[in-house]
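INFO batch 0412 | record 1 of 1 | parsing
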Amino acid sequence: MDQKGEQVYVGSIDQGTTSTRFIIYDKSAKTIASHQTEFTQFYPEAGWVEHNPIEILESVRLCMAKALDKATADGYNVDEGLKAIGITNQRETTLVWSKSSGLPLHNAIVWMDARTTSICRRLEKELSGGRTHFVETCGLPISTYFSALKLLWLLENVEAVKTAIQNGDALFGTIDTWLIWNLTGGCGGEQTEPGLHVTDVSNASRTMLMNIKSLSWDEPTLKTLGIPIEILPKIISNSEVIGKIGIGWPITGIPISGCLGDQHAAMVGQACKKGEAKSTYGTGAFILLNTGEEAVTSTHGLLTTLAYKLGPNAPTNYALEGSIAIAGAAVQWLRDSLGIIQSASEIEELAGKVENTGGVYFVPAFNGLFAPWWRDDARGICIGITRFTNKSHIARSVLESMCFQVKDVLDSMHKDAGEKGEVKNENGDFVLRVDGGATINNLLMQIQADLLGSPVVRPANIETTALGAAYAAGLAVGVWTEQDIFSDEAKQEKPATFQPNLDEELRKKRVESWCKAVSRTFDLADLSL
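INFO prediction complete | emitting tokens
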């Protein structure tokens, strides 16, 4: 409640790679109700990953309705007290839709999809700067990862997209843009205005099309790639009143006032200030270091990206990012494709039955490797297998693969940021803040601390992505202040800290073995079926 005794709530739409959630928070940032649902993953060909945009919309509608019902049943007057909605989403995932019909012109192409490899190779040959041609303006290399390449594929391969652009009927967006357009009116009608076609600076920074300094679409880049600016959304900050939710949704008339890509939302949820880093363990793993108001160019395989901009006139915080394509997705693979476990939660017990992997190293390069390697010709391997190897060794090697990949990124981060760019604790250690569903696994967190040789801190609330979007939304309408969000006093519950226990010499040997395993994944994309 606020000072007048009024109930105050903020909602958060968390649209991830495999599921959607809607969470309602009170003013103390405590969750009062939530609902989550999974949606379908489509794999039309090897290396291709798609989502149905309509199914994503319906998952949002369902989660809103269910969470509201739960809150009401528990006695919370959300109808009167809900002040704002924040949105956070899987980044880079790309779609084009018709503004007249509101229908997608193709399934959404997901961030981890690798179908654009040939387009990447073509651009690298044609452009004078090769793979790093656009790095100076957007901070990103040419890669299958980013939205611009996925949009080019749609332009070149989908007739409906070509026709809609020619007719002025096409709208491009990442998932945040698709959600906001539909939530604020969609196609419009006799009594409603059309939806708002916008994106925020963090999502725009992942398209390869935004100038990272001016925070606007980069016209030379658009001209080079042949992308018409008319189909692109307006770029806004992460915390401002965007528009109100229209009719036809479980909630209407409530302002949408916060929007961030999932990893940027987690930085806000973790209250990461300059020099502090967080790692989110979900389908992939994403490590970001806040570099303050300076956009640091990486020379060690990392990306320069936005951290957050909490208001139209607020300072822009930048970040160094290392993106890992496959983290928790490897656990899902053990469950769904191999049947080694029946649920993701079983992996901790199974992996804990052995003290080490027995010399087994697993590299989950299912669709190539992202940071710091950037090898789309890599493919997954499991090496060091002997007759002694059992499924516990395999399970443990999967957990270790997540932690080795995070260490690779952090090693690069330390080199790029330098001593002055990092905040250390009273013991002189660089502390990694962690979040995401996989961090509930204590064994995974201990392995991470052991391989890093430094502490890992897990907050009491590990779902910081949704919280960050709620903070941004509440900040814009006066529910919270930046002091509320970023002060140390704001942390109500004590976090869990994992200290490293591994001998330094053994750590070095295991890292050397991991690097040897990674090198074996290269140049395997053209293996015969």
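INFO post-check: Residues 391-417 form the longest helix (27 residues).
INFO record closed
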